[in-house]
Specification:
By secondary structure, this protein is an all-alpha fold. It has 31 helices and 2 strands.
């Protein structure tokens, strides 16, 4: 508490000044006058923000929403979501207990009382309700209770003022008669918005519900009533009825505001089909705004750009976008990141010509700090990085985008964890294709795993980069990461890891690589065990002849003869279930290891496997004959398998 009292006092804007006045004639000491400055309005988190600014962002630490405990820090994208949602599930459980056992929480110890901690009131048919009750419920956005109280007041004949009806209409129109999700459930809200965002925009407005009934009860109809119902219908894509009410309001000489016009422009895509028709309607709406002396704002700009982004005609879309940007620049409307997002999707299309508009955008906004002004502002960074990777394939531009992201509080505009993962997915893929292994590892060490956990596709790009740069000493570390990130059920990753270890035989004469064969053998054995353990699971991994042959070769090279024998016994035992066979080189290396470990029975077993699978058994027989001192039983068995031609060599 002492720190909380002292911090505002030591702020440079809140200094208490001591002014010494000139001593009067005959006095011996100066009088001190305390001047208290005017109070500066601060947010509830101002002190925390000031303390946080002294520390900065630490990418090596887990996000603050996770417990700083090794067992509770998520190490995969799935666990990130699970852990975050589990915390909110705990909040929901606590809230349910509070509501279910409300009698235990009726006491109010805090002064003044905290409304959020008090149980919600339960309304029944016998409840005494007044206008004030309804207004309080509307203010708290308790839709279900507000609807119940409204109907109860009508049943009991309690008078409801036009102002209360207007407030209720605005509430119902904004939330579409659905209870809003509490603010504290931000994780669930993010995931819900992602799910809804991936779905196609469809009409969700509830026709004939209480919002329309309240609108019909308001007499005479006011401009505010028309604006509320039109915006609600437009928000939930009841475009035709919203536009009909919009025209009705204009015919009755109701001068609607800019926000209502913006909502109609947002629905132009549902009202018209062809780009020409859409553009003509947009121009008509802008002309009407001019006649009513309404000044367009950022919402108008973004609504127009969103409409233009749906034009199939690239040239027309580009021309219209440039006209809109030019006009709004004259009006002095500042573009938000959402505006630049629309510019990117208009100019940088997958099947369109290459556009370098992002260069101009970055030159315009580089070094600036942005604040959220539009819902699409959080789409800019992920889209910009997508353009850098897939449209231009330019690493220098990607570096500029990343630099802009870390200016001030711009990182808050990256969006939720889903958009953050998309951003870094594009960034990592581009770095894998364009940077050196040293530069990439610097970024990898900084961001993985607390900021970003690479998806299986990105891990495969990383493995390709390692293979291309012959940096096979990184394989043990990358395999450890893949196990932590739960990528071990991806067969493509397992095969590529084995391929790199197989094709890059460490030079044991170099001190830095002396431990690699043994480390590679541990990785190969781990892969073998993971495949065996997956047999009883839904996502089952299965051996192929090439995969298990690569594992066998790496184990042999790593000197793990006992496990190599175990793997080969599995090959021999399950050869009818394993498609394909190990390579001839693999079997020869196994025979060489058998000779080194003085195990003729294993060598003969390998020879028998080769003959049964129509492979080159003669070369193996010759090597076995030269490498061992065989008895008559062994020679007889070899003759039965490949004949006696190996004796003539």
């Amino acid at each position: 508490m002492h720190l909380a009292r002292r911090l505002p006092a030591i702020s440079k804007n809140c200094n208490v000044r001591l002014i010494k006045t000139t001593p009067a004639v005959g006095t011996s000491a100066a009088e001190e006058q305390i001047v208290i400055p005017k109070r500066i309005q601060r947010s509830p988190t101002a002190i925390l923000e000031a303390l946080s600014a002294t520390v900065g962002r630490d990418p090596t630490a887990p996000h603050y929403k996770f417990h700083d405990d090794p067992y509770l820090i998520p190490t995969s994208n799935v666990s990130k979501r699970t852990f975050a949602m589990a915390q909110e599930a705990g909040r929901k459980a606590a809230k349910w207990i509070k509501e279910e056992h409300r009698k235990l929480f009726m006491h109010q110890e805090a002064q003044p009382p905290i409304e959020a901690f008090a149980p919600k009131l339960v309304f029944t048919e016998d409840s005494e309700v007044t206008q004030q009750t309804l207004e309080q419920l509307i203010k708290q956005s308790q839709i279900q209770d507000a609807v119940f109280v409204y109907n109860l007041m009508k049943t009991k004949g309690v008078e409801i003022t036009s102002e209360a009806k207007q407030s209720l209409l605005e509430l119902l129109s904004f939330y579409n008669h659905e209870e809003p999700m509490p603010e504290e459930y931000y994780e669930e809200r993010w995931f819900k918005e992602n799910t809804q965002g991936q779905q196609r925009q469809t009409k969700t407005w509830k026709d004939g519900d209480l919002a329309e009934q309240v609108f019909n009860e308001i007499e005479p109809k006011t401009t505010e009533a028309y604006a509320a119902i039109i915006r609600g219908m437009a928000k939930y894509y009841q475009a035709d009825r919203a536009y009909a009410l919009f025209q009705e309001a204009l015919e009755k000489q109701h001068y609607l505001d800019t926000a209502t016009y913006n909502s109609i422009i947002n629905n132009v895509n549902f009202l018209k089909e062809t780009p020409d028709q859409k553009w003509e309607l947009c121009k008509d709406l802008l002309q009407q705004m001019k006649q009513q002396q309404l000044k367009p704002n950022l919402g108008t700009l973004n609504a127009l750009l969103e409409c233009i982004s749906t034009f199939g005609n690239y040239k027309m879309g580009r021309t219209c976008a440039l006209q809109v940007l030019s006009e709004f620049k004259k009006l002095g409307v500042e573009l938000s990141l959402g505006s630049y997002y629309y510019v990117l999707i208009i100019f940088c299309r997958e099947r369109g010509p290459v556009s370098h508009v992002i260069v101009d955008i970055l030159n315009e906004i580089q070094g600036k700090e942005f604040k959220i002004q539009h819902p699409k502002d959080t789409y800019f960074f992920a889209t910009a990085m997508d353009v850098c990777r897939n449209h231009l394939h330019d690493r220098s531009l990607a570096k500029k985008v990343d630099k802009l992201l870390h200016v001030g509080n711009n990182y808050d505009l990256i969006g939720d964890t889903y958009k953050e993962s998309i951003y870094y997915r594009h960034y990592f893929a581009l770095l894998c294709q364009t940077s050196t292994i040293e530069e990439f590892l610097e970024t990898y060490d900084k961001l993985v795993p607390n900021v970003y956990i690479p998806e299986p596709g990105i891990m495969e790009e990383v493995l390709k980069m390692v293979e291309l740069n012959a940096a096979y000493e990184l394989i043990p570390r990358l395999w450890s990461d893949m196990v932590i990130f739960d990528h071990i059920n991806r067969e493509s990753l397992l095969l590529r890891t084995l391929k790199i270890m197989l094709n890059n035989k460490p030079d044991v004469s170099q001190k830095s690589q002396q431990q690699l064969p043994e480390q590679f053998a541990k990785v190969a054995l781990d892969i073998y065990n993971k495949v065996v353990e997956s047999e009883g699971r839904a996502k089952k991994l299965s051996f192929t002849g090439q995969m298990i042959g690569d594992i066998l070769t790496i184990l042999v090279r790593g000197g793990n003869w006992e496990k190599a024998v175990e793997v080969f016994n599995n090959i021999d035992k399950s050869q009818h279930r394993i498609p394909g066979t190990p390579s001839d080189t693999c079997l020869m290396e196994y025979v060489e290891a058998a000779i080194l470990n003085k195990s003729p029975s294993q060598a003969l077993q390998c020879l028998q496997y080769a003959v049964e699978n129509h492979m080159d058994g003669l070369s193996l027989a010759e090597r076995i004959h030269k490498g061992f001192t065989l008895n008559e039983v062994h020679i007889a068995k070899m003759k039965s398998l490949v004949g006696d031609s190996f004796l003539k060599q």
